[in-house]
Amino acid sequence: MRLERALGCASVLALAAGCGQAGSEPVASDTQGVYEGAASGAEDDGVVKVAAIDSNGVTNFCTGSLVAPNVVLTARHCVSNITSGSFTCTDAGELNPDSIGGRFGTLIDPANLKIYVGAAFSEPLAALGAKVFATQTPSICRNDLATIVLDRELSGVPLIPIRLDRGNQRGETLRVVGFGETEDEMRGVRRSKEGLTISLVGSSQFRADGDRIPPRTFLSLGPGPCIGDSGGPALSSNGAVTGVYSQLSGACNSPTARQYFTQVAPFTEEVLLPAFELAGYEPIPEAGGGGSGTPVGEAGAPSSSAGGGAGTNDRPSDGSNVTPPAKGGCRCSTTATRGAGALDRLALALVLGVAGSAVWRRRRSAKSPSGTAGAA
């Protein structure tokens, strides 16, 4: 089966298909995100805005989940340079040969990843990236997942538990949260939507007889997330992130839209635990048996093979271009358990933070006061 896909995240150049990549302007009039959703309150402040400056110097926006005081979980394409253009994926999770876009390039310099906390269109800069862990998958068609270790700890921000030791199931209901466009053509304000239902689940180590969609993914049908929501969490009834938003087929507001999410649990050993080990924290497992809670001291070295039996092109990638963060001395309001061996945070963080905030203000001033023109 061939499906015309589009990235859920606003990126550098426009894709030919519907809700595609965008620069400073929307690429189509039918690009709504968290469509027919509701305002997201302070309880969702663990869902953060991720701004990435790519190799062309363009700032693109995604969504992420704060899963430790200094770790953000997001989509792989949100932290990567990626070829622009339309693309189609096979059921096995491969790009079709005639695809123009969808291929991953190098990871973005972690120092060019900026994190903003809060639901409003404009929020102060909260942190910068210091190191990225991501699957080294060749395209967006599968394994679209990454973690960002931050240059500082964020105190007083709610943390999101993770489903670590089991996959998703058909019929499971989810809540999604993100900063994407709405039916009012507004972007950059956090929204949420309940009641999404998983229709199909791909194969993984948790499910040998998966449905005919790429492995380690799941799919929901109908209106939901879109531009700017990429990397945002699909939350279980226990409030744990079980998947991150990756891509879609069709218009975001269509009742037949196919919304693709990357499962989290298959990448516990590959992407999650290495980030927690560096950050010095243990993951918060989903309540009710949804995670193992493996201490970072027992996690060991990153796995040399991709979660779910992926091929040799899916080995983990360490995207660090700066010194890892060091131990900060803040007392964080969090239920996260600190692991052994946390490093000291970067002394340069404050300087970079001020510079990043200035860039944000300059970009913000170029937009309309209501945030309806090209905000991601």
Keywords for this entry:
six-stranded antiparallel beta barrel; 20 strands; 376 residues; Thrombin, subunit H; 2 helices; mainly beta; six-stranded antiparallel β-barrel
Give a written overview of the molecule.
- By secondary structure, the chain is mainly beta.
- It has one domain: Thrombin, subunit H (Beta Barrel).
- Helix content is 8%, strand content 28%.
- It contains two helices and 20 strands.
- It has a six-stranded antiparallel barrel. A six-stranded antiparallel β-barrel has the order 3-4-5-11-10-9. Strands 6-8 form a two-stranded antiparallel sheet.
- A hairpin with a 2-residue loop joins strand 4 and strand 5.
- The C terminus is likely disordered.
In short:
This protein has 376 residues and is mainly beta. It is built from two helices and 20 strands. It has helices spanning 268-279, 349-365; strands at 3-7, 38-39, 47-53, 59-68, 71-74, 80-82, 87-89, 104-107, 113-116, 125-135, 146-150, 173-178, 191-201, 217-221, 233-235, 241-249, 258-263, 281-282, 316-318, 337-338.
